[in-house]
Design brief:
single chain; 117 residues; alpha+beta; five-stranded mixed sheet
């Protein structure tokens, strides 16, 4: 698509409009982003490789061997979790087990992931 001139290359904080935008979450890869979607008064975030297991909500400092920069990935997870905790925003992970979709709640300095069916 890029060679055919059909791709739109954007910055990692790109916003198409108020219904679709990116949030930079580097660490797994240098330009990793989460995809935000807002519709009918609800918000959801596709988190990609930001987290690979729900335990990373309890322990945001835990990284996989696949993270490009483990310290940066941990900072991105903490920042993301702090931003969505208690907001009712649906988190749409790629790697979590079924039912995957969940909500994040603050639990002291940690976070709790509640799967939603």
């Amino acid at each position: 698509m890029v060679a055919a001139g059909q791709a739109l290359l954007v910055d990692d904080d790109f916003a198409l409009d108020d219904t679709f935008w990116l949030t930079p979450t580097p660490g797994h890869s240098p330009c990793h982003c989460c995809v935000n979607i807002r519709s009918r008064g609800q918000h959801a975030v596709v988190i990609g490789d930001l987290m690979h297991h729900a335990l990373q909500c309890r322990e945001p400092g835990w990284s996989t061997i696949f993270d490009w920069d483990a310290d940066e990935a941990a900072r991105s997870r903490r920042r993301f979790l702090g931003k969505v905790a208690g907001t009712g925003s649906f988190v749409l992970p790629i790697h979590f087990p079924h039912p995957t979709t969940g909500l994040v709640e603050a639990d002291g300095n940690r976070f709790h992931y509640k799967f939603v069916r």
